[in-house]
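User:
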Amino acid sequence: MASTADIRNGLCIDFNHDIWQFVEFLHVKPGKGNAFVRSKLKSLTSGKVVEHTFPSGATLNEVRVERRVYQFLYPDEFGFNFMNNETFEQVSIPEDMIDGKQFLKEGQEVEILFHADTERPLLCELPTHIVLEVIEAEPGVKGNTATNATKNATLETGATIQVPLFVDAGEKIKIDTRTKSYVERVK
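Assistant: Predicted structure:
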């Protein structure tokens, strides 16, 4: 059991028959009335984000989750298959548990969150930034640079993102997997 004093980003709790993770929180002590904690919670099973206010001193059912590093092997009709590099244990995860699955390539390492008591996978997180090669890019039109002009580019995983006009096929680029956007070219 935890209380509102124990709240921190990343804390997982059992709330409304689901497992939720704190994304943001703010302790508020108004001049009149009792203190409370305003928070944003993300469901680890559905990915839904909700706002909730807890009264100060409320008890929370803390859930233990473990982060384990796995290597992506291959996709199949049942989901995406990953392997633990230390134990060589393989696990298959449905595609709806993976945010940014279009950026997965064979051999890439990811973190999988497991419910510590039931050993059930909850969520698969890609690294914040990954480097991929541009396979195909539309030609940039000269003179279109009055504003931040972008064009479509297809990556080695098959994903399509917007990149600046100066990025050409064959170049490697860094991508932010949270926003699914171009960051910079990589040499």
